[in-house]
Amino acid sequence: MRLEDFDNDDDKVIQDRLKQKTWNEIRTNDSWAIFKIMAEFVNGYETMGRIGPCVTIFGSARTKPQDPNYLLAEKIAFKISKAGYGVITGGGPGIMEAGNKGAHLGGGTSVGLNIELPFEQHFNPYIDRDKNLNFDYFFVRKVMFVKYSQGFVVMPGGFGTMDELFEAITLIQTKKVAKFPIILVGSSFWSGLIDWIKNVLVEREATVSPEDLNLFKIVDDADEVVDILDKFYKKYDLSPNF
């Protein structure tokens, strides 16, 4: 079928990406992509390296401003900024907006690492003007989160939130990055997942070690988040993770 024979945009995108290309076309496109990827890394490193110690807040882009999780994320970010840390988010709406808003109200550094998406993502107004970075590549953006975050605060979210959470746990577990605090906020949201990890992955299938459960903590209160961060960094230095 030809591209114009498809009725909806999703089918057209799939057909366009699956259409046959010559080896020369593939090689040329890949070569130019390398330069674009390098540019995103260089811009990210140069900008983030100047910012100082930050904590990343993850969570759903779909959370509304009146939602208790939005209000809690804003409160957490406010307290984090008052404790001397900057706040990094994915730069979009929902929990990300709440994180940047809390940092902004607290007078702290407010960073947004935006990604171009076909829906949901648009940068929020609470990011510091000189700290709003845009990425085309998820993997480059994820490197920035992990390298320059002194901790991950993970609010309720969807697939993207889970992706960031498990990547961070995996990198620490395999010692590819230095250990840093991973704090899950909302025991009612996370308890089902953690029970499944304990019962299935640890006990039944033995695909995860029991000590790996110590790589993260679950809390329900903003003060607990700051307390965990402060206790960790009284023992260890603040520095990039790799």
Automatic annotation (TrEMBL):
Cited SUPFAM superfamilies: MCP/YpsA-like
One of the GO biological process terms: cytokinin biosynthetic process
Catalytic activity as recorded in UniProt: AMP + H2O = D-ribose 5-phosphate + adenine
Record GO terms (molecular function): AMP nucleosidase activity
Keywords attached to this entry: Cytokinin biosynthesis, Hydrolase
UniProt cross-references to Pfam families, sorted A to Z: Lysine_decarbox
First-tier enzyme category under EC: hydrolase
EC number(s) recorded for this UniProt protein: 3.2.2.n1
Top-level taxon in the UniProt lineage: Bacteria
Regions annotated as coiled coil: none
PANTHER family in UniProt: CYTOKININ RIBOSIDE 5'-MONOPHOSPHATE PHOSPHORIBOHYDROLASE (PTHR43393), LYSINE DECARBOXYLASE-LIKE PROTEIN (PTHR43393:SF3)
Family statement drawn from the similarity comment of this UniProt entry: Belongs to the LOG family.
Record protein name field: Cytokinin riboside 5'-monophosphate phosphoribohydrolase
Organism: Flavobacterium weaverense
